[in-house]
């Protein structure tokens, strides 16, 4: 979907746009963007589904919980979602972490916040947002790593600190 949106925007918002050749231009731009964005997204979806179906994701989550203990469930969630985000995209982490929600005595809102923060940390080649920023911004991979990755790490740490603070002030569980 992201590649198609980029293709349409690139096609329609150019100076020499004419309705007569819109179809062929959209198809060409879509093909070019799918090569850069779509294939990594597809591979990450396959890896994520495989991890979910094989039980590997659950084992990783359980391992973090065993090592860190129940009292550190927030750090356990952050660590396991960060670890699982390495081979898959940010969007897929919520599906991989979903089996955990019934096992912890933490409010669902805080679970979602910490999982999102952990999945977003150190966003790089495995994140569709990384490729979208790179392609639409005309950046090199190195420039995207120095900007987008640093930004998502700051957002992730801020999200963790915010959820820890809110869960302390407003303990819903």
Report on this model:
The protein has 173 residues and is mostly helical. The protein has one domain. It has 8 helices and no strands. Helix 4 (73-84) packs across helix 6 (108-120) and helix 6 (108-120) packs antiparallel against helix 8. The protein is elongated and about 60 Å long. The model has no long low-confidence stretch (mean pLDDT 76).
Summarize this structure as a short list of keywords or feature phrases.
173 residues, mainly alpha, 8 helices
Radius of gyration: 19 Å
How many strand units? 0
Question: Which percent range describes the beta-strand content?
Answer: under 5%
Order of helices and strands: HHHHHHHH
Overall geometry comes to elongated
Number of H- or I-type helical stretches: 8
Write the layout of secondary structure elements.
Blueprint: H1 2-12, H2 22-54, H3 56-68, H4 73-84, H5 90-97, H6 108-120, H7 128-137, H8 141-169
Helix pairs in contact: 1-2, 2-5, 2-7, 3-4, 4-5, 4-6, 5-6, 6-8, 7-8
Would you summarize the structure shown here?
By secondary structure, the protein is an all-alpha fold. 75% of the residues lie in helices and 0% in strands. Helix 4 packs across helix 5.
